[in-house]
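Hello again, I could really use a second opinion on something today. I've dropped the whole record in just underneath, so have a look.
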Amino acid sequence: MGITAKELAKKMNLSASAVSLALNGKAGVSTKTRQLVLEAAEKYGYDFTRISSKAQTGGTVTFALFSKHGAVVTDTPFFHELSEGIQNTCKEKGYKLNITYLYADENLDRQVEDIQYSDSAGLILLGTEMSGADFKAFQKLAMPLVLLDVYLSDVKKDCILINNVQGAFLAVNYLISRCKAQPGYLRSSYPISNFEERADGFYKAVRTNGMSSSKSVVHRLSPSVEGAFADMTEILESGEELASCYFADNDLIAVGAVKALQKAGYRIPEDIAVIGFDNVPMCAYVEPGLTTINVPKYYMGEMAARRLFEILHAERFVPVKLEVHTNLVKRRSV
């Protein structure tokens, strides 16, 4: 049995990325190193058909989910719609989809190396919880890569993400127009770039309506139904000041907070109005139905896959940032 690229790297005392770049004819290694790698690969019986198969029509695409805080839960409608958009586009192009999970608290370099030496033609990386520092492990990955649900200003890769500022502004502007009051903010306790951008949209809408940002009541809640319920219950028991209406960073926070408010005897929306973000299916089934911002999740996944295939067959690469706009879904919580 011939040697693998990973074994070849160890035998030559070279980095995994250097060997992969050399074998795939990519820039990033010297001519001398490339020649040495190719000669060693031939000597030890490396199967060069692995390289050519990646370039042909058909093959495998990897969809990797990066987890750092545990805020990205894969068993959710949001994730299912994203992955369905990717899956169906891959199927249309004759590719199989491999879904894998990457954990920041484990050996991330080794996990990325495993992707490099798989038969994958390209990678779609769900980076909702990712920072620029977290991306360092992916910098030398010698395959096309599209970032999904995050924008990293120093990373020269394609990004497909939500226009969070626009969505939050739309939600808060509607909340103010309906309630004629200073909106409160049910803010995620986890530091995620999406939520930071939603905060920008929240405060922009507050200022646009002639209100003072400092006067908005802000509660920090866990971004899950159970966590937000527990956190909001504690806030209610402590007697903290409440607002008459709230914008929540996501629907899970909104639903958890609403349940806690209802348990404490508040009527929604008569006493306190709440608007969410994401439009997950439960919004239509909770009582009252949750007004929220709809994110075209399937379309985001589809666009990420289509962009990856464009890169695979492009003669030159120029990274792009694609922001997907949102729309308001009116129900009875406002």
Summary: Residues 3 and 46 are 5 Å apart (CA to CA).
